Amino acid sequence: MSVLDNWQQWKDFLGDRLDQGQQQGMNKDTVNNFAYQIGDYLAKQVEPKNEQEKILSDLWSVASKEEQEAIASMMVKLVEDNGTQK
């Protein structure tokens, strides 16, 4: 099963990656920029696997670059307290 198949697993996966980046000294701007790049890649290359991802994909497709950056920033905030590596 892919982490993309289950919303909670996806958030845990993103939370773990966020924790790793922060432990390696990535600042908030770098994390948000990286989140934007991941969001853009997923929107262009990966078919949504669940309802939540479909909503994000639909929002991303109609958003301006600034709005996409805001979506990415909100995803970072959403997963800050998620993850399995506490």
Descriptive report:
The structure is a single chain. The chain has four helices and no strands. The chain is mainly alpha-helical and 86 residues long.
Task: Quickly describe the structure.
72% of the residues lie in helices and 0% in strands.
**Span between N and C termini?**
23 Å
Provide the low-confidence segments as ranges.
none
- How many strands, which pairing sense, and closed or not: the largest β-sheet? none
Mean pLDDT: 86
Radius of gyration: 12 Å
- Number of distinct helices: 4
* Beta-strand proportion: under 5%
Query: What's the β-strand tally?
Result: 0
Helix content: over 70%
The assigned structural class equals mainly alpha
Order of helix and strand elements from N to C terminus? HHHH
Shape: globular
Write the layout of secondary structure elements.
Blueprint: H1 7-23, H2 28-45, H3 51-62, H4 65-79
Fill in the keyword field for this structure.
72% helix; mainly alpha
